[in-house]
Amino acid sequence: MQLDATDLKILQQLQADGRISNQELADKVFLSPSSCLRRVRMLEEAGIIHHYCAVIDAAAVGLEVDAFVQVTMRRDVEQWHENFSQALQQWPEVIGSYIITGDANYLLRVRARNLKHYSTFVLERLYKTTGVLDIRSNIVLQTLKDTQQIATSLLVAE
């Protein structure tokens, strides 16, 4: 799907406020409500708008630990990737998982109530997963920027 300036404005507004009414959105992007709704539905059907969600303040709900964990796997274990991928789907502490380049195979973002909870997760789940060779944790001390919003300026070809 080719995005035009109006589509980009719609995406920008929805990223700022996913609960905005169609009428308000239409007013902000200078469309009729029916045209605006049609465009939003096209963006959803094209998979550009993946889903809508509420962003929860982790600290406010008692999740004090935010960690990035590099996991290196043993390559001599059969189906190490499939087994690890399946296991991490069962861990609610893992809020992001990525296959990465470099020394490790995976980068995980983990949230835990406190250091004891985090330690239990690492020792009782992560280290006990078949094929895990090494784990390197980086505990976040302070967050400077954390967003899921994609700047619409990145979407415009130069």
| Shape label | elongated
Q: What is the SS-derived class?
A: alpha+beta
Total helical segments: 5
Spatial ordering of strands, largest sheet: 2-3-1-4
Uncertain runs: none
Into how many domains do the coordinates divide?
Answer: 2
Q: What is the distance, rounded to the nearest whole angstrom, between the alpha carbons of the first and last residues?
A: 18 Å
Mean pLDDT: 95
Content of β-strand: 15-25%
What is the C-level CATH assignment of the largest domain?
A: Alpha Beta
CATH superfamily of the largest domain: Lrp/AsnC effector binding domain/regulation of amino acid metabolism (RAM) domain
Helical proportion, percent range:
25-40%
The profile of the biggest β sheet is: 4 strands, antiparallel
What's the architecture of the largest domain, going by CATH?
A: 2-Layer Sandwich
| CATH topology call of the largest domain | Alpha-Beta Plaits
Count of extended strands? 4
Radius of gyration: 20 Å
Q: Topology as H/E string?
A: HHHEHEEHE
InterPro entries: ArsR-like_HTH, AsnC-type_HTH_dom, Dimeric_a/b-barrel, Tscrpt_reg_AsnC-like, Tscrpt_reg_AsnC/Lrp_C, WH-like_DNA-bd_sf, WH_DNA-bd_sf
Keywords: DNA-binding, Transcription, Transcription regulation
GO molecular function: sequence-specific DNA binding
Organism: Undibacterium pigrum
